[in-house]
Prior knowledge:
Blueprint: E1 2-3, E2 11-17, E3 24-30, H1 35-54, H2 58-65, H3 71-83, E4 86-89, E5 94-97, H4 107-112, H5 135-148, H6 155-173
Helix pairs in contact: 1-2
Amino acid sequence: MQDEFWEMGAPVSTTLFHPKGNHPMDISRKLVASKEDHEIHKRALTALTHYYKHRDGMLLTRVMLSMPKSNRRVALYEWIRKFSVLRWDRVLERLVRSKKIGEHQDLDGASQIPFWTLKVKQAQRRHVSGNTFESDLFFERVIADIEANIERVSVVKLELTILTLQKIVAQKHAGMPPSK
């Protein structure tokens, strides 16, 4: 599969191979980012440049907090995590620098990958009302979250969680409902 990068409103050409043969099919679709998305991305790039230069994540925090709690805000946070060692501190309600992880500055990558490409489709989000529960996706995301934040997870908590999951598995094998 071959993809070309897109600009605002430009068609994306994707080459796929026909399922009943090896001849390629050309599918063009239009991926559109709003003017607001481009403006947010520009502000985020400026803030990321400031962070790389001064190790001050406050501008990135302000960009993130200026957005409503939505799928776009989650995508921006994933973009920030991808291109920095900043993590959200729920107590302080701001981005803080993780000092245990080395940082690789990639401003070119950040400018080429707009934050909106990291949006998670609504059906893939965890615990969103109206969506069905998909256990495979749920566990993949939980494991990914644990691995991404392993320095903040205690060994005791991990062992307790594993023990609890093993107990649930044993109850499921026995046909008993899990205890609450």
